[in-house]
Amino acid sequence: MDNKDFIRTESYSLRLKPSGAKKVTEEFNLWMNKKVPYKKQSVMWSYVLLLKTRELAQYLVGKRKTIDFSKPAYIVERQDSEDIRQKILSIFYTDWKNMEFSKGTLHYMKKNAKDDKPFTLNSHVRERFKMWEGI
What are the residues whose beta carbons fall under 8 Å from the beta carbon of 66, sequence distance 6 or more? Predict the structure, then answer.
């Protein structure tokens, strides 16, 4: 997503422009069309949601005694390996500035790298970060 995909309202909140909404919708559709293993089959997430919704409805009307929302397990592709964390923590501000990033971006990346919580890197940050690694 780009800045041009948003509009700032009179109350200073951000709203999606149609171009941004289209990107969000396309990404969501990509995720819904991904296949996952479920009951010894490979099915799309959209179908799993349909099945789970039916199970919930049957549970709520008393046709099922139990309900299990843990299957299939959702797998997150993490970008925050220990190696990445250490590289972020070792970046000097001058190197960061040469890559045309703001001091604030570096501050928050280092803050996230110090925390023991998962984090992601924006695509433009990943690209420049890879360039920096090659230096």
Answer: 59
The percentage of the chain sitting over the pLDDT mark of 90, rounded to a whole number, equals: 33
Q: Vertex 74, ends 123 and 129: CA angle to 5°?
A: 20
| Segments making up each domain of the chain, as ranges | 1-32, 38-75, 82-134
pLDDT at residue 76 in the model: 63
**Cα gap 56→66, rounded to integer Å:** 9
Q: Does the pLDDT at position 114 exceed 80? A: yes
Q: How far is residue 6's CA from residue 2's CA, in Å, rounded to a whole number?
A: 8
DSSP 29-51: HHHHT-EEEETTEEEEHHHHHHH
DSSP state of 3: G
Tabulate helix, strand, coil % of the chain (nearest 5). 55, 10, 35
Judge residue 96's burial from the number of C-beta atoms within 10 Å of its C-beta, 0-12 exposed, 13-18 middle, 19 or more buried.
Answer: buried
Arithmetic mean of pLDDT, 59-83: 80
pTM for this prediction: 0.49
**Residues in contact with 121: Cβ distance below 8 Å, sequence separation at least 6, in sequence order:** 79, 84, 109, 129
